[in-house]
Specification:
Length: 477
């Protein structure tokens, strides 16, 4: 064992420090957790059992359990069983909880029973950061990511999936029945055994079929035509992988200067398209200003949402997605036609004027329709339309999105800023939460989980910017 660093002999007498305090450095993160929770007014925030009952067994003060959870999320120990184990062997946790070690049931019940209060406690940290002047830039990135729920893909059904599954079971039953007919023609014990096995399988298949038919009825009654059996609030979400996932859509608002998550929301709304206004509102209230610049990706582009966001006083920057079918088949897309606001007309690629013709209502939106004269003699017609003439439609409020796209063109770095701002927090949160992401079921519970993760992320950011000692000082100031 020469030339290696040698450990201490296990039989040698050791003098451990006399107090837990001596084990914890002055700039240990656990001291931030302790200081933060001690400064919160837990009664005001709505925590249960802040004031103990006069009778019965004394319980743990909510501050002990809240500290335990925040420490857990900061150190990737999110499950209550792991926290129970750590509380008995982890010196930092012994210091934090003053050697109290609640059992996992107490820990998990605390998270379940105090969801809204825990979420508010996490929001308080953002308020503290705002008071320290951390959100002065007023530029935010908004983004969403899908987080896995406690629900396997096989336990999530849509109408198409159910129909396919029922079809497969019908085919299986048919196959078993044919085998049964063939077996009935045979004699002997082996044939009898096989026959009874087939009957069992057919009966199991019929039971499964009855379950699926019942599910089909439930599905018809559900508002979004989707059912998840393990976590009823989780939804099948499209992801960059073909398979997709069953989970939740987590939205964040991140400030571009310090990369702090100023607001977040967990939803089971599948598309980001309906969430720009809601997230902007949350960002405005977290930052304390209306005139924030909001950067979001193409998934958020929606005329109504952009209009509503501007009505809130914010300035959105959202690129337009390319969804033109004409472009896909090699014909001119809408952006090859230039709008002429002076006389409310378009100019087509052949230089022809396309005057306004009439207004129609499509999906609740007033759409103005334009077309030129002379498409039938145009040399570009094959690249333009298969109809009599090319029509262009314009939403009546399209001036708003046009102005926004012009603003976006004038700020070419906007999308790079957005990417650099919002994508890192999601990567970090997902790696901290592990492969399974959420551990609890139902929307209110996963919201609590995400709040704790976001608080842990923000605490880490603040420590890296200010240092733990300084952060403790400002928390206690
Ligand atoms: S087909 Fe009609 S709309 Fe298209 S380029 Fe020719 S004139 Fe313009």
């Amino acid at each position: 064992m020469k030339r290696f660093i040698i450990g201490q002999d296990r039989n040698q007498s050791t003098l451990f420090p006399e107090s837990l305090e001596a084990y914890i450095d002055e700039d240990n993160t656990v001291r931030v957790v302790d200081a933060y929770v001690d400064e919160l007014d837990l009664f005001e925030l709505g925590f249960e059992r802040v004031n103990p009952k006069a009778t019965g067994r004394p319980g743990y003060h909510p501050s002990v359990l809240l500290k335990l959870y925040i420490y857990g999320y900061l150190n990737r120990i999110q499950s209550s069983r792991c926290l129970e184990r750590e509380a008995n062997r982890n010196v930092e946790l012994m210091w934090l909880t003053e050697k109290l070690a609640p059992d996992f049931k107490t820990i998990t019940d605390f998270r379940k029973d105090n969801g809204p209060a825990i979420q508010t406690a996490c929001t308080q940290f953002v308020i503290l950061c705002r008071e320290l002047g951390f959100f002065a830039s007023t530029m935010v990135g908004i983004d969403g990511a899908k987080f896995k729920a406690v629900n396997a893909r096989e336990k999530n059904y849509t109408r198409g999936k159910l129909t396919r599954r029922i079809g497969q079971i019908e085919q299986s039953i048919e196959r078993y029945l044919q085998s049964l007919d063939a077996t009935d023609l045979q004699d002997g014990d082996a044939a009898d055994i096989k026959s009874s096995q087939l009957k069992e399988r057919i009966s199991a298949m019929r039971e499964k079929m009855a379950e699926l038919v019942q599910l089909k009825d439930d599905l018809t009654a559900s508002h979004d035509k989707q059912i998840s059996l393990t976590d009823p609030d989780a939804r099948a979400m499209a992801t960059s992988t073909k398979a997709g996932m069953v989970g939740y859509n987590v939205q964040t608002v991140v400030d571009t200067e310090h990369h702090m998550i100023v607001a977040h929301e967990v939803t089971n709304i599948v598309s980001d398209k309906l969430l720009l206004t809601r997230m902007t509102q949350l960002g405005q209230s977290a930052i304390g200003r209306k005139d924030i610049k909001v950067f979001a990706d193409r998934g958020y582009f929606s005329g109504d949402e952009i209009m509503a966001t501007e009505a809130l006083g914010a300035i959105p920057y959202v690129p337009k997605p390319y969804t033109s079918n004409a472009r896909k088949v090699g014909r001119f897309g809408k952006h090859d036609f230039i709008y002429q606001p002076e006389d409310n007309s378009y100019q087509c690629p052949a230089g022809q004027k396309m005057p306004y013709r009439f207004t129609s209502v499509e999906k609740g939106k007033d759409m103005q329709v334009y077309w030129p004269n002379g498409c039938d003699v145009c040399s570009l017609k094959a690249k333009c339309t298969t109809g009599k003439h090319r029509r262009i439609k314009r939403w009546i409020n399209e001036d708003i999105t046009d102005a926004m796209l012009k603003r976006l063109n004038a700020l070419p770095e906007a999308m790079a800023i957005r990417r650099a701002t919002v994508e890192h927090p999601f990567g970090t949160l997902k790696s901290w939460m592990g492969v399974t992401h959420f551990l609890t079921r139902r929307l209110p519970n996963v919201k609590t989980e995400m709040s704790l993760s976001v608080l842990a992320y923000n605490i880490r950011r603040m420590i890296s910017m200010m240092g733990a000692k300084e952060l403790i000082r400002v928390i206690q100031a």
